């Protein structure tokens, strides 16, 4: 067993262990943090496999953006410090059985499929470089790549559709003249704090929380 | 200038056959134009411009598809092998485009200035903001580019020649649909629930698809369907990686089709989504999904057919029976049609299982026939309205035939087509599919198919009886006519009739499209 | 100065990976000590320079010119009582300062501070490590650093800290996109993501012809890719979280932002992180845009040895300190922006401009790769850009003059003494930067 083998095994243990903790921990924010550890260990595995570009992009995108936004969402809605007792599902035994069974099947399949396959890393140095990756992205996979950008555009439009509240903002068109005397102004775009302020001003104390959340959610 | 820089220039430009990809590119281009319209045009003109852009895009793409089909013998791979342009694909793409155009008539409908989509998606259902946005007459015109994005994905999906392209196409087609499902104008909570359900289950099935892809890649060293087929014939078919990969991939594909046991999303989503969108999903998405299934099983896994056939037999039988039997207990029209759509998915699978030219051509014909009928049927549903929107509950339809014989008659005609009564397209389609399955040696499947058709016919006829032979309700639903919907209904009914009475030209078209099978 | 001579001095990717362990250890130690010392000096310099700019002496008692002030402050800060508020999530509370400080230091490892030198008989580049994708490392580290802020804000059980943490994470993520985009043009021109090779690529300009004349493009990307450089400067300010973009810790609104509840050594860690970050960002900018450790051109004219031996370290330090001074100068000169202005600048100006610029650069690059003459195209493009700028400026003027009466009207509606108390308007059009939003009058505000 070479040093690289050892490192990749250790990283695998970390990734899997952190993954288990994501599901097992009773603290919401800690779950997100264990997810970060898991992603980080995965990035480490990529590094060992000499796929440097993929490794750093993994850190940049998954660790740096996706989970941060996840945390962002948790913190803006609810992020209690300490244990939350309601995080457990009544189906957890069933879920455990299903998960273990799935993992068993997949691991068996992979082990049986790849037991004899062995690719020495030394021969493949450079196969994970940005040059190779770019070459294959913009040669063989150019159509899926472009289709993915279309997908992202569609997702972007979708997010706007779901979140924008100010499309009814006072505009020059006559149809948008004030329909009733008590019409409220469209929510202004602004900081979270300003949102809090806006919502508070517009709401009675009872429904304050819900309105605050619905306003703040849109920022994400 | 450093030597490093010179080295960067050695990635050659990929070769893209723009002409052969044009239908897809036109639709996606029109979607992008729609986004620009949304950004730049004044609000009052957006609706008109968006409808114009969408219709022109779809028509142009359809025209180009026809030109491709009659030009040369289409049998090529394009875009560095990512997509195949061949007879069956063009037939499927053409069908999707026509059906999308028909659905677009429903989507663009503004009955009394009342669009089927919500005025402002971001408002909380029941909130004062929602009321304000309704009163202000706002419209969410972003739906048109989103529909076009989805249609673009549907066009790529059956054409995809490798699993990666297929996955991306799957997402391009699904993501806008997840969103659009939640944008109904009435019963918004139901609609949002449908969207969340569809999204969660869809994401789950995408994961299955990806996992299967990864395993097949592990087996064959490539995600290209032709190379997977080559690897299967070289290495034999009893590798656990291959079998697990095929199983997971099939789960992902069958979910999109709504085949049992992955059908759970279909009734909820079809019921909750705006009916215009349900029409799109029931026709175009089903056509695209079956197209993808056909390509995967005819090209990639064809050499493995003795292994997957038993599984597909089971799925097809289960799908037909579940669709037909559960539909009997339904009381909501849209839910009932959803189960009917599940059952039809089963009939389509019998054509897939045949794995021969007859199976392919009959499946293609069935897809087209079913697509037109289903869009027409959902169009009728949008016309029958109560005070609170569409009259969903079946009891509201009682006696409709006495008050509105034309509308009820058309609906009855569509139902008969679903049931597969002679002189409708449904009969021809089923006949062709069962014939192919019989030729392929799947006699038990055919028997189950005929039995479940008979079960299904029971509840279709029950609705017809309800409409024509019970007393009309005093406060029964009204029928609201409008040119666009009426056109969709008329086209649907006309095609259903023509394909039932003189099916030869369409059958011939499907046969010639299927003549060379899929390109590898 | 012969070209071969200069190239022999510059490090490339091949120069790495041959060092004995003690040189690597030495380099790591030097980087660490250098960063700590730089922080001390920067803190002192900042207070002195700002003092000068505000016509007061600044700290001048401890040591000559008060240079020990920062050290004493540091010792005092570390020895203070370490307060841990009740109810905090202790593990995360401890982890956050480390997560903020460590990545900032790690980033520095890919910065080249000199060419190849000889240490103890070993030829070695003056750079801790280099990767084929080295520039991604500072970006990745910056995004890990965000965790420090956001977790500090969350774990300290204080709404001020939470809002500060959220603000900082949103700010850093937004500006990181524009920052990454500003690098793309550099990558396109240098053809590499390795820092040492980017420095090497800036050694000489490329020759191109305009109207029959052979011209040399400037070798520094700061000149050649000026828009990228400017965008980087903006994003650098945003990433560092300093004035004018120090919203996360805007003391007027949020006390001290995410580190409100921190004290003693943990607080010092945040302090350290901020200043190390500043140094790292300056060093990154030097490397990518200002030719790295290479001597500036007037010097290389009359002194051919300027790029050999240990001299490059001097040029590198001078360039870094120019940026540090720039940071301090801005802090003395500028007020803080509002948070929505910050976000608007990031998302609506920097990112679109970056994208447009990348498009332009890659078109030029592609044309040149296919051996087209880009000179006339560039001139036409420049003219179009200038015309567009003028048009947009005129458009702004016209629309502003149209909007003015409306604003005046809205201002007239407001009752400054609504309800018997002096109230500032809660929502006025100029808060949004445009004149089309309708200002609610204060009667409506009091009703709600």
From TrEMBL, chain A:
<feature type="transmembrane region" description="Helical">
    <location>
        <begin position="55"/>
        <end position="81"/>
    </location>
</feature>
<keyword id="KW-1003">Cell membrane</keyword>
<dbReference type="Pfam" id="PF00499">
    <property type="entry name" value="Oxidored_q3"/>
</dbReference>
<comment type="similarity">
    <text>Belongs to the complex I subunit 6 family.</text>
</comment>
<keyword id="KW-0812">Transmembrane</keyword>
<keyword id="KW-0520">NAD</keyword>
<keyword id="KW-0472">Membrane</keyword>
<dbReference type="InterPro" id="IPR042106">
    <property type="entry name" value="Nuo/plastoQ_OxRdtase_6_NuoJ"/>
</dbReference>
<feature type="transmembrane region" description="Helical">
    <location>
        <begin position="6"/>
        <end position="24"/>
    </location>
</feature>
<dbReference type="InterPro" id="IPR001457">
    <property type="entry name" value="NADH_UbQ/plastoQ_OxRdtase_su6"/>
</dbReference>
<keyword id="KW-0874">Quinone</keyword>
<feature type="transmembrane region" description="Helical">
    <location>
        <begin position="141"/>
        <end position="162"/>
    </location>
</feature>
<comment type="function">
    <text>NDH-1 shuttles electrons from NADH, via FMN and iron-sulfur (Fe-S) centers, to quinones in the respiratory chain. Couples the redox reaction to proton translocation (for every two electrons transferred, four hydrogen ions are translocated across the cytoplasmic membrane), and thus conserves the redox energy in a proton gradient.</text>
</comment>
<keyword id="KW-1133">Transmembrane helix</keyword>
<feature type="transmembrane region" description="Helical">
    <location>
        <begin position="31"/>
        <end position="49"/>
    </location>
</feature>
Automatic annotation (TrEMBL), chain B:
<dbReference type="InterPro" id="IPR001750">
    <property type="entry name" value="ND/Mrp_TM"/>
</dbReference>
<feature type="transmembrane region" description="Helical">
    <location>
        <begin position="240"/>
        <end position="265"/>
    </location>
</feature>
<keyword id="KW-0472">Membrane</keyword>
<comment type="function">
    <text>NDH-1 shuttles electrons from NADH, via FMN and iron-sulfur (Fe-S) centers, to quinones in the respiratory chain. The immediate electron acceptor for the enzyme in this species is believed to be a menaquinone. Couples the redox reaction to proton translocation (for every two electrons transferred, four hydrogen ions are translocated across the cytoplasmic membrane), and thus conserves the redox energy in a proton gradient.</text>
</comment>
<keyword id="KW-1133">Transmembrane helix</keyword>
<keyword id="KW-1278">Translocase</keyword>
<feature type="transmembrane region" description="Helical">
    <location>
        <begin position="277"/>
        <end position="298"/>
    </location>
</feature>
<comment type="similarity">
    <text>Belongs to the complex I subunit 2 family.</text>
</comment>
<feature type="transmembrane region" description="Helical">
    <location>
        <begin position="481"/>
        <end position="502"/>
    </location>
</feature>
<protein>
    <recommendedName>
        <fullName>NADH-quinone oxidoreductase subunit N</fullName>
        <ecNumber>7.1.1.-</ecNumber>
    </recommendedName>
</protein>
<feature type="transmembrane region" description="Helical">
    <location>
        <begin position="143"/>
        <end position="160"/>
    </location>
</feature>
<keyword id="KW-0812">Transmembrane</keyword>
<keyword id="KW-1003">Cell membrane</keyword>
<feature type="transmembrane region" description="Helical">
    <location>
        <begin position="47"/>
        <end position="70"/>
    </location>
</feature>
<feature type="transmembrane region" description="Helical">
    <location>
        <begin position="405"/>
        <end position="425"/>
    </location>
</feature>
TrEMBL record, chain C:
<feature type="transmembrane region" description="Helical">
    <location>
        <begin position="20"/>
        <end position="45"/>
    </location>
</feature>
<comment type="subunit">
    <text>NDH-1 is composed of 14 different subunits. Subunits NuoA, H, J, K, L, M, N constitute the membrane sector of the complex.</text>
</comment>
<dbReference type="Pfam" id="PF00146">
    <property type="entry name" value="NADHdh"/>
</dbReference>
<feature type="region of interest" description="Disordered">
    <location>
        <begin position="405"/>
        <end position="448"/>
    </location>
</feature>
<feature type="transmembrane region" description="Helical">
    <location>
        <begin position="91"/>
        <end position="111"/>
    </location>
</feature>
<keyword id="KW-1003">Cell membrane</keyword>
<feature type="transmembrane region" description="Helical">
    <location>
        <begin position="275"/>
        <end position="293"/>
    </location>
</feature>
<feature type="transmembrane region" description="Helical">
    <location>
        <begin position="313"/>
        <end position="333"/>
    </location>
</feature>
<protein>
    <recommendedName>
        <fullName>NADH-quinone oxidoreductase subunit H</fullName>
        <ecNumber>7.1.1.-</ecNumber>
    </recommendedName>
</protein>
<dbReference type="InterPro" id="IPR001694">
    <property type="entry name" value="NADH_UbQ_OxRdtase_su1/FPO"/>
</dbReference>
<feature type="transmembrane region" description="Helical">
    <location>
        <begin position="345"/>
        <end position="368"/>
    </location>
</feature>
<feature type="transmembrane region" description="Helical">
    <location>
        <begin position="374"/>
        <end position="395"/>
    </location>
</feature>
<keyword id="KW-0874">Quinone</keyword>
<comment type="function">
    <text>NDH-1 shuttles electrons from NADH, via FMN and iron-sulfur (Fe-S) centers, to quinones in the respiratory chain. The immediate electron acceptor for the enzyme in this species is believed to be ubiquinone. Couples the redox reaction to proton translocation (for every two electrons transferred, four hydrogen ions are translocated across the cytoplasmic membrane), and thus conserves the redox energy in a proton gradient. This subunit may bind ubiquinone.</text>
</comment>
<keyword id="KW-0812">Transmembrane</keyword>
């Amino acid at each position: 067993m070479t040093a690289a083998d050892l490192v990749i095994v250790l990283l695998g243990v970390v990734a899997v262990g952190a993954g288990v903790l994501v599901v097992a921990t009773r603290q919401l924010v800690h779950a997100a943090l264990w997810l970060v550890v898991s992603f980080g260990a995965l990035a480490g595995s990529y590094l060992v496999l000499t796929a440097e570009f993929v490794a750093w992009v993994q850190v940049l995108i998954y660790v740096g953006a996706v989970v941060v936004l996840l945390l962002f969402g948790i913190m803006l809605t609810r992020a209690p410090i300490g244990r939350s007792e309601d995080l457990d599902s009544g189906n957890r035994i069933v879920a455990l059985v299903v998960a273990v069974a799935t993992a068993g099947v997949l691991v068996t399949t992979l082990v049986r499929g790849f037991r004899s396959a062995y690719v020495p890393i030394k021969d493949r140095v450079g196969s994970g470089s940005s040059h190779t990756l770019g070459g294959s992205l913009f040669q063989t996979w150019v159509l899926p790549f472009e289709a993915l950008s279309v997908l992202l555009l569609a997702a972007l439009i979708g997010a706007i559709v779901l979140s924008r509240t100010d499309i009814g903002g006072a505009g020059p068109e006559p149809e948008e003249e004030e329909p009733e005397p008590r019409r409220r102004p469209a929510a202004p775009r602004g900081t979270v704090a300003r949102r809090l302020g806006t919502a508070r001003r517009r709401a009675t104390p009872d429904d304050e929380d819900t309105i605050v959340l619905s306003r703040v959610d849109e920022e994400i | 200038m450093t030597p490093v820089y010179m080295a960067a220039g050695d990635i050659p430009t990929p070769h893209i056959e723009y002409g052969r990809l044009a239908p897809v590119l036109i639709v996606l281009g029109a979607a992008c134009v729609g986004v620009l319209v949304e950004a730049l045009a004044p609000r009052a003109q957006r609706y008109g411009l968006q409808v114009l852009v969408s219709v022109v895009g779809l028509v142009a793409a359809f025209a180009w598809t026809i030109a491709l089909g009659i030009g040369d013998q289409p049998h090529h791979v394009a875009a560095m092998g990512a997509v195949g342009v061949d007879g069956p694909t063009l037939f499927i793409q053409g069908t999707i485009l026509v059906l999308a155009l028909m659905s677009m008539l429903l989507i663009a409908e503004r009955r009394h200035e009342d669009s089927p989509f919500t005025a402002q998606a971001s408002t909380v259902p029941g909130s004062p903001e929602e009321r304000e946005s309704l009163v202000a007459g706002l419209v969410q015109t972003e739906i048109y580019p989103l529909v076009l994005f989805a249609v673009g994905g549907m066009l790529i999906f059956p054409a995809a020649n490798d699993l990666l392209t297929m996955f991306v196409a799957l997402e391009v087609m699904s993501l806008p649909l997840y969103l659009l499902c939640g944008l109904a104008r009435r019963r918004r909570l139901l609609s949002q629930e449908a969207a969340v359900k569809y999204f969660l289950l869809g994401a789950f099935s995408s994961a299955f698809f990806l996992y299967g892809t990864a395993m097949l890649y592990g087996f064959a060293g490539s995600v290209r369907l032709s190379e997977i087929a080559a690897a299967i014939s070289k290495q034999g078919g009893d590798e656990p990686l291959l079998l697990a990969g095929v199983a997971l991939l099939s789960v992902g594909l069958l979910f999109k089709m709504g085949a049992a046991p992955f059908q759970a999303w279909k009734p909820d989503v079809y019921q909750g989504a705006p009916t215009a969108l349900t029409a799109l999903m029931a026709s175009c998405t089903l056509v695209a999904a079956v197209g993808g299934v056909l390509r995967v099983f005819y090209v990639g896994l064809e050499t493995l057919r003795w292994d997957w056939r038993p599984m597909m037999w089971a799925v097809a039988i289960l799908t037909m029976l579940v669709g037909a039997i559960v539909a009997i207990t339904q009381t909501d029209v849209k839910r009932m049609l959803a189960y009917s759509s599940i059952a039809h998915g089963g009939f389509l699978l019998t054509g897939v299982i045949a794995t021969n030219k007859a199976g392919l051509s009959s499946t293609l014909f069935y897809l087209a026939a079913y697509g037109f009928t289903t869009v027409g049927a959902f169009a009728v549903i949008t016309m029958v309205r109560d005070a609170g929107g569409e009259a969903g509950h079946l009891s509201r339809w009682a006696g409709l035939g006495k008050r509105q014989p034309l509308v009820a008659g058309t609906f009855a005609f569509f139902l008969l087509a679903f049931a597969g009564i002679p002189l409708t397209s449904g009969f021809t389609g089923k006949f062709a599919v069962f014939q192919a399955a019989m030729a392929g040696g799947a006699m038990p499947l055919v028997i189950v198919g005929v039995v479940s058709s008979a079960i299904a016919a029971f509840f279709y006829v029950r609705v017809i009886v309800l409409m024509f032979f019970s007393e009309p309700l005093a406060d029964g639903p009204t029928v609201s006519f409008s040119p666009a919907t009426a056109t969709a209904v008329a086209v649907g009914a006309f095609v259903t009739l023509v394909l039932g009475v003189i099916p030869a030209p369409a059958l011939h078209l499907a046969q010639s499209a299927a003549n060379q099978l899929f390109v590898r | 100065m012969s070209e071969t001579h200069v190239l022999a001095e510059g490090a490339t990717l091949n120069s790495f990976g041959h060092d004995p362990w003690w040189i690597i250890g030495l380099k790591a130690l030097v980087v660490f000590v250098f960063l700590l010392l730089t922080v001390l000096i920067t803190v002192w310099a900042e207070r002195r320079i700002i003092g000068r700019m505000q016509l007061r002496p600044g700290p001048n008692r401890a040591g000559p010119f008060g240079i020990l002030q920062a050290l004493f402050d540091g010792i005092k800060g570390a020895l203070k009582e370490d307060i841990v508020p009740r109810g905090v999530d202790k593990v995360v509370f401890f982890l956050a300062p480390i997560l903020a400080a460590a990545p900032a230091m790690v980033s520095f490892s890919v910065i080249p501070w000199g060419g190849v030198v000889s240490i103890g008989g070993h030829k070695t580049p003056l750079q801790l490590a280099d990767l084929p994708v080295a520039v991604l490392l500072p970006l990745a580290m910056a995004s890990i650093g965000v965790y420090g802020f956001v977790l500090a804000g969350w774990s300290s059980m204080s709404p001020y800290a939470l809002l500060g943490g959220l603000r900082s994470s949103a700010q850093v993520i937004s500006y990181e996109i524009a920052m990454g985009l500003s690098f793309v043009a550099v990558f396109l021109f240098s053809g590499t993501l390795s820092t040492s090779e980017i420095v090497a690529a800036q050694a000489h300009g490329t020759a191109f012809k305009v109207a029959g004349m052979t011209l040399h493009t400037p070798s520094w990307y700061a000149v050649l890719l000026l828009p990228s450089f400017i965008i980087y400067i903006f994003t650098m300010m945003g990433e560092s979280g300093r004035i004018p973009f120090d919203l996360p810790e805007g003391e007027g609104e949020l006390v001290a932002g995410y580190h409100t509840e921190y004290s003693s050594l943990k607080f010092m860690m945040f302090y350290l992180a901020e200043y190390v970050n500043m140094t790292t960002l300056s060093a990154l900018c030097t490397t990518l845009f200002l030719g790295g450790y290479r001597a500036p051109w007037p010097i290389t004219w009359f002194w051919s040895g300027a790029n050999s031996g240990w001299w490059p370290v001097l040029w590198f330090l001078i360039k870094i300190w120019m940026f540090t001074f720039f940071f301090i100068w801005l802090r003395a000169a500028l007020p803080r922006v509002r948070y929505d202005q910050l976000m608007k600048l990031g998302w609506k100006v920097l990112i679109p401009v970056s994208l447009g610029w990348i498009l332009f650069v890659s078109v030029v690059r592609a044309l040149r790769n296919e051996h087209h003459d880009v000179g006339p195209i560039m001139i036409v493009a420049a003219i179009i850009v200038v015309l567009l700028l003028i048009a947009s400026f005129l458009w702004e003027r016209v629309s502003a003059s149209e909007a003015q009466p409306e604003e005046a009207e809205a201002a007239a509606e407001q009752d400054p003494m609504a309800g018997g108390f002096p109230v500032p308007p809660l929502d006025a059009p100029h808060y949004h930067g445009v004149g089309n939003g309708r200002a609610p009058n204060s009667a409506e505000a009091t009703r709600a």
